[in-house]
Design a protein that fits this description.
Elements (H helix, E strand, L loop, with lengths): L3 E7 L5 H14 L4 E5 L9 H7 L12 H25 L3 E5 L2 H9 L4 H18 L7 E6 L2 H15 L10 H18 L2 E4 L1 E2 L2 E2 L2 H16 L1
Parallel strand pairs: 1-3, 1-4, 2-3, 4-5
Antiparallel strand pairs: 6-7
Pfam families: Thymidylate_kin
EC number: 2.7.4.9
Function: Phosphorylation of dTMP to form dTDP in both de novo and salvage pathways of dTTP synthesis.
């Protein structure tokens, strides 16, 4: 019997990693068996092609690598992670909490295409990962939505706090805006659970968002 796959997706800087960890803390407190996964898996050889893309080895702008090619780079890492790490746990009934998943290709790569070509791309993407590669479909996708202007402020703060450089996605404000516009429509069309992470021009508190996230997850926990 398969378990549950809960995916955190959203705009850059929206707090996906934070909320995924907080949910895992709740699962641990309740004595539930879970596994937390995060993509790309930096440090894994299977994630290196995606890492090279993100850090400009294949072009300095996101559009230098087309949506289909970029998606394959990430899909290889996900397939390897399922085989190496969490597949058996999930298949045995465990709860898997993912910070990003196939949904990230939907958010980021579909935005590179004209709107009229996005449905065909999404069909191809989900057939590739869920169909041909055999990866599980999420039981719940929590899309953390943050206005691009707020998102960029959060990204710059994170760079300063962690002394890290932004990748080619995070550096491109126009690209981030296109991603958000595309993702909001995709989230609506695919029935993702959208969590608004801003109140006006300021982010909501982490705890406030945590409570809303838990209310969306509760039906899956029995």
């Amino acid at each position: 019997m398969n378990g549950k796959l809960i995916v955190f997706e959203g705009t850059d800087g929206s707090g996906k990693a934070t909320q995924a960890k907080l949910l895992c803390e709740t699962l641990a407190d309740r004595g539930l068996s879970y596994r937390e996964i995060d993509f790309p898996r930096y440090g894994s050889p299977f994630a290196e092609p995606a890492n090279l893309y993100l850090h400009g080895a294949l072009g300095n702008k996101p559009g230098d690598v087309n949506a289909y090619a970029a998606s394959v780079l990430y899909a290889v890492d996900r397939f390897a992670s399922y085989q190496e790490d969490w597949g058996r746990f999930y298949e045995a009934g465990g709860i898997v909490v993912a910070n990003r998943y196939t949904t990230s290709n939907a958010v980021h790569q579909a935005s590179k295409l004209p709107e009229g070509e996005r449905r065909e791309f999404l069909d191809w993407l989900f057939d590739l990962e869920y169909g041909r590669m055999g990866l599980p479909r999420p039981d719940l996708v929590l899309y953390l939505d943050l206005p691009t202007e707020v998102s960029e402020k959060m990204l710059r703060y994170r760079e300063q706090a962690t002394a890290t450089a932004a990748d080619i996605h995070e550096q491109d404000g126009d690209y981030l805006r296109r991603c958000r516009e595309s993702a909001r429509k995709i989230a609506r069309d695919l029935g993702w659970s959208v969590v608004d992470c801003a109140a006006g021009d300021a982010p909501r508190s982490v705890e406030d968002i945590r409570r809303e996230v838990l209310s969306r997850v509760e039906p899956l926990l029995g």
